[in-house]
């Protein structure tokens, strides 16, 4: 008699019970239906196709873009006694031939294959001779042209359905915003698939955003105070910043290793291995690091630079606390990040529609940083999940943000942009408001504009905060061509005309905020 999925879970995988939607997803596939699974990283997506692979006759074909991970997955499956193999460019021809023969002979339960390999006529022909249990399309968001993991080959995966309409398919991803989901459905022809959307909440992760002042020092304080011995990841935008930060932390006594695409493959592998094996290693990395990293006890993910979207932020912070124990997502952010990311978007070769989407994503990220509401609410809302209660485990919940009537200040800030010709960034504008009269200001004659010195009731940090919030609220935009110059938008008019008011968040003074946190 055939085993049940639960029996397989117990016997082969050694787990007691299914998590979340796993059991139902497996039942769907066993019934021959398609499924689209949106589950956060670490949620347990793999079992959703691994168990049906063992129960359905034939070989399950798993399409995955992550060549580096195939071998790990296959090794893990083999240790459990499952007949698994992979096919990608790292195999020598002989080994590849062996795998192909096993496929033809029907002795494999699972075959992992890179999309470019799958799509060759040769391999498709081979599949024609084999018995296929199911198709699993992992990292299905790679089909989205507007996502940063776009893989052109993924678009052609629709042909699997055309050629093998009777074989059930399961598409899996941890990226769940509505447009991506819609794109997966339409490109892969999954209109009839059952959609399983898990909650993306990671309740054990505490989200915090601090104003960027001296980021390395702020990071050091954070690590010393809260994670002196812990493993964690520090994300930076550039390779240089990765190198500098890793060296800085190492000099301060941390086991800190750099990781970025500019390092030799061997060194990257070695650093990754140490991060996984040793305790308390801090990986300082660009976003090149992390895809598929399954280390349960990552206690913090720190961002020294703003990620370019909330999807990226969620993915990156999601590497913390997979064991369910408390973990921190900590980030420093300043308006300079925004300027840099805007420039990266504008300087890219992408077409206008792509750029518009990237800008919107960045705006979402900014909204998260500047929110006075619960950060978790903002984050989950972005993924289409509405949460009524504030979470109690983010900085805005733990230290509710004061607001103040910023109408007057905002008007001064806006008119200062206007009076100086909409050609300057927030640091310069702040100097004008504060009435500084350095060489540059005099050269432009801005010591004589009407807004010179009208902002002395606030400090420089507060003015920077006002400008950030005006950008986040869409009243001001960053002009990438003007090297981060701020410009007024249509939406600033009512405020300038005195027809609207604005509430602003009162950013804690850096020092006060630290003390408040130590007290908790
Ligand atoms: P994802 O692919 O969604 O990131 P994985 O499939 O790698 O997640 O699973 C994450 C971890 O959770 C793995 O270590 C896996 O063995 C474990 N896991 C998955 N399902 C269960 C379960 N039902 N019970 C216990 N552990 C599970
Ligand atoms: Zn909260």
From TrEMBL:
Catalytically driven reaction(s): Couples ATP hydrolysis with the unwinding of duplex DNA by translocating in the 3'-5' direction
Class of this enzyme: isomerase
The keyword Magnesium is assigned to this record: no
Name assigned to this protein: DNA helicase RecQ
Molecular function as annotated in GO: DNA helicase activity; hydrolase activity
Covered residues, full protein: 1 to 520 of 728
Residue ranges constituting the Helicase C-terminal domain according to the UniProt record: 215-365
Spans annotated as Disordered: 506-520
